[in-house]
Design a protein that fits this description.
Immunoglobulin-like, 3-stranded mixed β-sheet, Helix Hairpins, CcO_II, 6-stranded mixed β-sheet, binds copper (II) ion, alpha+beta, 5 helices
Length: 290
């Protein structure tokens, strides 16, 4: 028993060594977070997730960072134990190994502590799910249709009833626009800021997926089915995403661009879009939504 206690002391020294390493890594982690990514599009050498601009994305972002910290603590703790074992309990340093096989306190601890960690993870995890599935009342509905290989958007009669395609902006057009390569489209989906936008997503040919990193979601576009998701962008700007379901030859060339604008700018846009784009008969048809 005396030997076990001595081992316990040695283990605890390993633990404090790990804790010191953790502090160092914490400083490193802060530096990484400071090198935060761009808004609405990735940047070269990006380490972090794209800056979130919706409630759902913010919760996912925070949850992601919480998990990283928990992971870091566990990894360093295990690393500390491993180093302690290697250094202090090798054959040379510890020629007469202990024959101890059970330690009730230790066994209870290493059962309870992981359970507590999982509970601590489950709580914010379910909170994110609840926000995602909260399904608030829509201020604007937009129908999104995936095609091989572009997206089209239909706006309801309440804002003018029109539809248009959004194709990849390439060549000189892309260079002149100053928009990022392979991420920008000729026509953008435009939505008002701080309004709940619901999208109903389907596909005309094969499966696609409408994904917008800074809004914190991707949703499958499946022929013959209608998927629905909501977002409330809290910051004006231009946001880029990509088709995220391998859909064929030009899968990498059907980006998504969403412009989040003020209410007035949105009204100005719909007034223009009404004449510019093809009219839908009585506006887009939407599925019954809560
Ligand atoms: Cu696709």
């Amino acid at each position: 028993m005396g030997m076990a206690r001595a081992q316990g002391r040695r283990l605890s020294r390993g633990f404090w060594g790990g804790a010191a390493a953790l502090a160092a890594a914490g400083i490193l982690g802060t530096v990484t977070v400071a090198n935060a990514a761009g808004i609405g599009q990735p940047v070269p050498w990006q380490m972090d997730l794209q800056k979130p601009v919706t409630e759902v994305a913010t919760e996912i972002y925070n949850f992601h960072h919480l998990l990283n910290w928990i992971m870091l603590v566990i990894v360093l703790f295990v690393l500390g134990l491993l180093i302690a074992v290697v250094v202090k309990f090798n054959e040379k340093a510890n020629p007469n190994p202990s024959r101890t096989t059970h330690n009730t306190m230790l066994e209870v601890a290493w059962t309870i502590v992981p359970v507590l960690i999982l509970v601590a993870i489950a709580i914010p995890s379910f909170r994110v799910l609840r926000t995602q599935l909260s399904d608030p009342k829509a201020d604007l509905m937009v129908k999104v249709i995936g095609h091989a290989w572009y997206w089209s958007y239909e706006y309801p009669e309440t804002v003018g009833g029109f539809k248009f395609d959004a194709n990849l902006l390439e060549g000189d057009d892309q260079v002149k626009s100053g928009q990022p390569k392979l991420l920008a489209t000729d026509n953008e989906m435009v939505v008002p800021v701080n309004k709940i936008v619901k999208i109903q997503v389907t596909a005309a040919d094969v499966m696609h997926s409408w994904a917008m990193p800074s809004f914190g979601f991707k949703i499958d576009a499946i022929p013959g089915r209608l998927n629905q998701f909501w977002f409330k962008a809290e910051r004006e700007g231009t946001y880029h995403g990509q088709c995220s379901e391998l859909c064929g030859q030009r899968h990498a060339y059907m980006p998504i661009t969403v412009k989040v604008v003020s209410e007035q700018a949105f009204q100005a846009w719909t007034a223009e879009a009404k004449t510019k784009f093809a009219r839908t008969d009585g506006g887009a048809k939407f599925a019954e939504a809560k």
